Amino acid sequence: MGLSNLKDRVVSFANREQFNYSALPEHGNQGGSETQGPSWLDRHKSILRVTGVALLLAVIGTVAVNLTATRKGHSCDYVQTGFQCEKAISHSWGQYSPFYSVPSDIPNDIPAGCEVTFAQVLSRHGARDPTQGKSLAYAALVDRIHSNVTDYGKHYDFIKNYKYTLGADQLTVFGQQQLVNSGIHFYRRYEKLARNVSPFVRTAGQQRVVDSAVNWTQGFHHARLADKLAKFPDAYPYDLVILPEEEGFNNTLSPMTCTAFKEGPDTGGDAQAIWVDTFVPPIAERVNKNLAGANLSYSDIIHLMDICPFETVANTDGHLSPFCHLFGEDEWNGFDYYQTLGKWYGYTNGSPLGPTQGVGFVNELIARLTGQPVRALR
Ligand SMILES: *[C@@H]1O[C@H](CO)[C@@H](O)[C@H](O)[C@H]1NC(C)=O
Ligand SMILES: *[C@@H]1O[C@H](CO)[C@@H](O)[C@H](O)[C@H]1NC(C)=O
Ligand SMILES: *[C@@H]1O[C@H](CO)[C@@H](O)[C@H](O)[C@H]1NC(C)=O
Ligand SMILES: *[C@@H]1O[C@H](CO)[C@@H](O)[C@H](O)[C@H]1NC(C)=O
C-alpha cells in the first residue's frame, strides 16, 4: 500500500483515453536526452504543497480540533474556521474576504475502506496591501474627498480625519498569520500523513507568494513540534521550489506567461462593467449626498468599498474598518458579485482560455508524481 500504489494509480489515470490530451509514457523517455531519476514521489514522499495560482482556493476542513484564536487580543480569525468577524459583511468581499470555512452538509470523513496517501493544498497568498496601482488610486480618491467635500454626512465625518497609509503589494501581518494558520490547519487535518514526512513546497516567485509559502511552513512545522507522535527530525526549514513569474519561464502557476491570455480581451472587466451600472447607482446617489461636493463616479464608489477590506486586513486583529459600515449587507452582496464576475469571466470557466490554463498545472503535477519530464500534452 501507499506510495508506489499511488504512483501506479497516477500513471494509469494519466493513461486513460477519455481526454483530449495524450498521456505520459509509462516507461523510458522518448526524447532520449532526459534522464529519469528516482521519482519525485520517492524522494519527497506524500505531501505536496503548491502555492501560487490566480485564484485563492480555500481548503476547508472539519477535523475536530479546538477553535483556537490565533492571537491574544480580540481577533476573530480562527485556525479551524477562518475569519468570523461580522461575517454578514466580511464574507461578501469577493477575493478580498479573508479566508473562511464555508459551512457544508457534506461530511468530509474519509469513506470507509479508503486511506489518504497524498494531500495537496493550493493557495495564492495571504491578505496583503492593495496592488501599487490601486493603492495610488485610493490615496488620490481620499485626497479628492478631503479637498472637495464641503459637508460630511452623519456617518461619514470620520473620513475628514482619516489618513490613507496603506502600502503596496506585500502581505500584512494579518496576512502572514493567515498562512501560519493554514499550515497548522493542514497539519492537523492530515496529521497521520504529516507526522511522518516533510512537505514539498512549490511557489510562484512574487514576493508575497514566497512569503506566504514561508509562513505556511512555519505553521506546519509548529503544529508538528506540538505533535507528540511526530517523527523527528524533519527537514525544517523545508526547501522551497521557487518558479519565477518572469518571461522565459513556463510557470504553470502564473496566467500571464500565456501571451494569448495576457493580450486577449478583458472578459472580466467587460462583465463587471455591466453589473456596475446595475448595482452602483443607488449607492453613488446616497454617498454623494453624504459627501457633498465629492461628485464620486461609479468607479470611485468601488474604490471606496475596496478600502474597507484593505483597512481591515491592515489591522493585526482584523477589526472591521469604519468604511465597511458605510454600506449595507445587500450592497456588500452586490460587491461580492462584482468581484466574482471579474474572476469568473477573467480567469476561470467564463474566460475562453481559463480552463485550458489549468492543463499546464495538471501536467506538471503528473510529471512530479510520476518522476517523468513534463510533456506538452495536446
Ligand atoms: C476636486 O478637487 C480637485 C483637486 O484635488 C480638483 O482638481 C477638482 O476639480 C475637484 N472636483 C470638484 C468636483 O470640485
Ligand atoms: C512570517 O514569516 C516571516 C519570515 O520568517 C516572519 O518574520 C514573520 O514573523 C512571520 N509571520 C508570522 C505572523 O509569524
Ligand atoms: C516553454 O514552453 C515552450 C513551448 O512548449 C518551449 O518552446 C520553451 O522552450 C519552454 N521554455 C522553457 C524556459 O522551458
Ligand atoms: C461630476 O463628475 C462628472 C463625471 O464623472 C462630470 O461630468 C460632472 O461635470 C461633475 N459634476 C460636477 C458638479 O463637478
UniProtKB/TrEMBL annotation:
Protein name stated in the entry: Uncharacterized protein
